[in-house]
Amino acid sequence: MDKVVATALDAVADVPDGASLAVGGFGLSGVPNALIQALHERGVSGLSVVSNNCGAMESGLAVLLAAGRIARVTGSYIGGNKEFARQYLAGEIEVEMIPQGTLAERLRAGGAGIPAFYTPAGVGTQVAEGGLPWRYDGQGGVALASSPKEVREFDGTEYVLERGIRTDFALVRAAKGDRHGNLVFNKSSRNFNPLAAMAGSVTIAEVEELVEPGEIEPDAVHLPGIFVQRVVALTPEQAADKKIERRTVSAPEARGTVSA
Asked: Among 5, 53, 55, 213, which lies 20 to 30 A Cα-Cα from 63?
């Protein structure tokens, strides 16, 4: 089955207001920027987003966030996104913060058809006991807080019950993909992308290189096409547009030093 869609706008044409989205990426790595920009151009709003973070440097999900299109975020990192922090503290957006490993497993579990699982992460904290502020009232008070979760003991250790995550759509970015939706991710972009793709009822992948079926060795496939419904081939310019979040420069070696 050829799953290629002509443009990013065509690929997200049926994403409605209020939809839930699982979005791949970590910081600026592996972020489906073209699909996010297409959603912005369509004016979709009231979105519930599940992603590690909510964009940075005015790119990725930060584009939708700044436009006021996101109503709820389920994630594990706010980081240096000052607008995200401002909206959260002002009570303009609902935020469910989750331990990063738990978020990854909740996405994977949802994609694997597992409704819930037990984990020791969060036991003895507000993650399990409830009271985490999901929404502030804009005046320093908490308008909505998390509820307590079930805790059980196994072999002398306590574990908290976490639910698997399923979303209406998933947006991911891959280095290579074929027309059947088989995907390959490059290095650190193989972070939340496969997990987000698994969790979406309709998964849309933007790929830097589109190849024909059979050109990707079966053992090289990171995510099989059964999880992907639509594929969008990026232009060379879009594929090459990769921002750097923080530039660091190594200290130069001391002049005149001699190695033994």
From this structure: 5
pLDDT at 253: 72
Question: What stretches in the chain show pLDDT beneath 70?
Answer: 254-260
For residue range 69-85, list pLDDT tens digits in order.
Answer: 999 999 998 877 889 98
Spell out the alpha helix ranges (H) of the chain.
8-11, 33-42, 62-66, 82-89, 100-111, 126-129, 193-199, 236-240
Q: What is the pLDDT of residue 81?
A: 84
The residues, ordered by sequence, that sit 6+ positions from 203 with a Cβ below 8 Å of its Cβ are: 169, 170, 171, 172, 196, 197, 227, 228, 229, 230
Planar angle of CA 183, 185, 191, nearest 5 degrees: 120
39 contacts: CB under 8 Å, gap ≥ 6: 12, 15, 47, 64, 69
Tell me 187's DSSP state.
G
- What 3-state class would DSSP assign to 52? coil
Rounded Cα distance, 245 and 80, in Å = 10
Which residues are CB-neighbours of 182 under 8 A, at least 6 positions away? Answer: 213, 216, 221, 223, 224, 225, 228
CB atoms inside a 10 Å sphere around CB 119? 17
d(CA 26, CA 228): 20
130 alpha carbon, distance to own chain's centre: 24
